[in-house]
Each structure stands twice: as C-alpha cells, then as structure tokens.
Write a structure and sequence with these properties.
Length: 199
C-alpha cells in the first residue's frame, strides 16, 4: 500500500514537471525586441509590435520608444488629465504621469485593461491583424497600419503609415529590421530605441 501511494506521488510529480516544461516551451520570450535595444521585426510585417517590452513610468520611461508611443497618443487624440487632447508639445520621449493618463484613456477606448502600461496587448493593437483591404496605391490596409510597399527592387525597406483617429504618421522598417518613425513634433525620423531618447 505504501509503495503504491509513493508510486502515485512520483507519477503526479512527473506529470506536473512535464506540464511545467510544456508551458515553458510554449511561452514566447517576453520583450524579444527590448533585449535587442530596438523595436524591430523580421519576416512577416504583421507581428512586429505585440512582443515588445513593457513601456511605463518605471520601464524605458526616457526613450525613443516612449516618443514613438506619444506619437500614437497624439495621432489617436488621446485625452489628458485636464480633458484636453494629447498635444504635439507632449511628444518628448518621457513617459510621465501625463503620458500614463493619456495611455489609460486610449486603452479604455480600445477595450483593453486601462492600466497605463504599454505591453503586448496594447502594442499588439498596432500589429493590426484584423482586416486586409487593398489600397488605391497597391498598398494594404491592416486596421491601423497601411503598408505602402514592401521589398521593391533596390529597396528593402517596408514603408507604412499609421492612421490614428486625428492624425497619421509614417514608419519604415529597414533591412536591419529596426523601425523608424516620423516624429510629429519635430518632423524628423528617429529609430525606435529602448535605451536612448533622441526624441
């Protein structure tokens, strides 16, 4: 009886270990792009944003990634704490209380948990994996992002346009996989980086 009980315990422990191992294998590594230091992608253009590291007041808060996100907030007309719209002057690459509040209002509008943390679910909205409609210029609409051309001869860049509720801006993914974006405050193009702020 004692041997049978011990055998059952060992079997349960083995099954538990296999289940934990399966979960570990099935889970994709968090913040894959964060470890490279840049918002980047490879292969399919429809899954570059959902695997980003979490952006918040305590994580990558002074970065070009924060600047990029503030561009999205401005393009979407997200509301600030004083109930005005997020302004161009707010695009400074510093994820502070004002950016957190505007993020929460946008998350609420998008039907997400309004926690002010820009993680996989919030960045994933930019992946726009929903509808694919042809554009008059031969590009592709995918929700928020319109891809204008991909891998044309002599040009390995992927050019896209983000269409917010109020404004739009351009993005480019070069051969290195790194994304650049048009800073709507300055009109310059910047590489989306985690560990520096050249907003």
């Amino acid at each position: 009886m004692k041997a049978r009980t011990q055998s059952r315990r060992w079997a349960a422990a083995a099954i538990g270990a296999v289940a934990v191992g399966a979960l570990a294998v099935g889970t994709s590594p968090a913040s894959a792009s964060a470890s490279s230091g840049y918002l980047s992608g490879a292969g399919s253009i429809y899954d570059d944003f959902g695997d980003e590291g979490t952006l918040s007041v305590s994580s990558y808060s002074h970065s070009t990634l924060a600047c990029f996100w503030q561009n999205v907030l401005y393009a979407e007309g997200a509301r600030e704490s004083d109930d005005s719209k997020f302004d161009k002057s707010d695009i400074d690459g510093q994820f502070g209380p004002n950016t957190r509040f505007a993020t929460r209002t946008l998350q609420y509008r998008w039907g997400l948990t309004a926690d002010g943390l820009v993680g996989g679910n919030t960045f994933g909205k930019l992946d726009a994996k929903r509808t694919y409609l042809p554009d008059v210029d031969g590009g592709v609409w995918t929700g928020k992002l319109q891809y204008l051309r991909t891998n044309t001869p002599g040009n390995d860049a992927i050019v896209a346009r983000y269409h917010g509720k109020d404004h739009s801006f351009s993005l480019t993914r070069g051969a290195s996989g790194r994304w650049l974006f048009e800073n709507l405050r300055t009109g310059t193009h910047r590489t989306v980086a985690y560990n520096r702020n050249d907003c």
